[in-house]
Every structure is written in structure tokens, then in C-alpha cells.
Amino acid sequence: MRWNLAYRTLFHDRGKLIAGLVGVIFSVVLVNIQGGLFVGLIQKASMLVDRGNADIWIGHRGMHNVDFAHSIPERWRHVVEGVNGVEDVQPLRVEFSEMSLPNGGYENVVLVGVPETTNIGRAFEIEQGPSHALQLDDAIVVDACDDDKLMSPQIGETREINGRRVRIAAKCNGILSFLVTPYIFTNYERVLDIMGSDPTRTSYLLARVTPGADSAAICRQIEAILPDVEAMPSDEYASVSINFWMTRTGLGISFGAATLLGLLVGLVMVGQTLYAMVLDRISEYATLRAIGLSEQELLSILILQSATVATIGIAIGIAITVILQALLSTPRATIEIPNMLYVGCAVLIFCICLFASGLPYLRVRRIDPHTALQA
User: Fold this and answer.
1) What does the CA dihedral 78, 81, 84, 85 come to, rounded to 10 degrees?
2) Is residue 1 a contact partner of residue 218, using CB atoms and an 8 Å limit?
């Protein structure tokens, strides 16, 4: 009986029902898209680590961001190779420089020098050009998503980096820096040649451990042997790199404020709609109270209505979010929505809708049935 009454009063006025659904749908879409944009953006801060095919990153003590490396002695790789559980160790060089542009200008870039003989540190996959591009003379690999910054470099075209000639040998896709500076990939020795760097030093040592080995324990062993370095499992260093930008830029606060605003708007719309629907039927509720409807039964009717609005609105909102993600997500503006975000958003908005049902309940429970019936 209560479900029938809740259903009939809810769907009788479809205009107000649609207004309530719009509030829920708006909140679901805004929270998921906003959260997805945030996740997609902040993941760029750890892209080299996430896709570097290494289990452990070893760098200078206090390392806090993969793009801002300080050099360490390259010979320490032999010390790390002697640690029990370490299978392979390769150096990785990350340095800032400038690339010449066809119009005579320059673009700041991040040179990433990777070893040729292994995939450790190789965060990119070649999509245009030969697979052995890095073995060619003066070869570099650029990302197709940075074409506008680098003025559409073509495969085979020559440029200069730090005054040294390089050739565009291949392109990857979607390996973008959190900074505005494009990644330029080349082999390890070529970075030394281009930058004129000290060959006895490197930016990072990347280690791969034997299957089943405890990466965290190996990191502690490395730090005990080499007290001037910091060693972290890849997932930990990825979190450190992300946290660097989260805390230094206030990015989390900005996205969080916009997300809370969306939730607040949805809460107000749902609460106002439910409140208006109850006020339109205040005499009916007064009649029900007069013939014995208890406060508990009244509250259950309002909760059923809120739960119905929330369930339908969340389902439609998630469907719209999936469509928008497929249409709008690009490597440059990635919308990455984890399943946990979908679930967390749905649970949160459902709870908010249930909370909103308390607003009309407070109004109805103060009604004097005799007064309302006489009116």
C-alpha cells in the first residue's frame, strides 16, 4: 500500500519528477566527468613510471617527481645488480632542453634517454615509423599529440636539440607530460651526445626484480648499501610524483570544489522537487495522518520516492557519462573514470537523495490533520 501510494504520487506529476531526475543526472554526470578529467590529468604526472616496465626506481635522495631528476653516479648500477633479488638494472636519463622549430623559434622539451637493448624505461610504443627507430642515426621519437607544439614534425625531418642535429624517426601516441613540455625519446648514449652530459652520471637506475621478490624489501637493502640514494617500488614512486603536483599546485582543491558544487546543486534540486511535490498534496497527507498514518509510514513513503528518483537518475546519469567519455576523451584531455569512482559517486548521490527526503518530512510531520482538513 505504501509503495503504491509513493509510486502514484511520484509519477502523477511528471513535470516535477523530471525536474528531480535532472538534478540527480546533472550531479552524476558532473561528478564522474570532473573526477575522470582529474584522474586523466594527474596520471600524466606518473606516466613515465607507470609505463616504464621497471619494478624499482632509484634516484637521488629526496626524489619527488619523475620529471625533475638530479644525477647520481651511473657506476652504482653495478652495486644494485649485486643485491639479492635484482634481475636487471638499466640507467635512464631525463633532461630538459630546447628543440628548434621551422619558424626559427624554440620549444622546451624533456629528453628521455632509454637503453636500446631492453624495454626497461621504454614508456612509449611506436605507432608511426620503423620499430627499430632508436637504432637509426640521430633518431628521436616524438608524440603525435604534440604536433601542434612542435609544428607538425614529419618522419624523416631534421631538427636541432641543444644545437645538435636530430632526425624524427618515429612517432608514438598519448605519452604526454604533465608539464607543457613534450617528451622526446631517444637512446641513452644519444642524450649524452646531445646534452654534453657527464657520462659517469645518470638520472635514474631502473631495476627489474626476480618473480616473487619483495620490491619494498629490496629497496631497503639498496638504501642500506647506498645511503645517498632513494629507492622506491614503481607504484610508490608514481604516487609520490602525483602527490607532488597535488600538493604544490592546489589541483585537488580546485577539482574537489567544482565537484562539491555539482553535488550541492543536485541536492538542492532534488530536495526542492520533493518538497514541492509534498506541498502540492499536503491535504492528502493530512487526510492520511487523520485516518492513522504514522510518522514512520509517512517517512517510508518519502524515502521510497527519493530512492526511486535516485535510482533512475543515477542509471541515466551513468549511461550519459559513458557516452560522453567515449565522445570527448582524447590523449590530451583524457577522461579516465575508475570503477571505484562510478560506485562511490552512485552511493554518495543515493545517500544525498535519501537525506533530501528529510526536508519534506519535517514539513509534513508538523501538519495538524484537523486544521489541514478544515482548510
Assistant:
1) 170
2) no
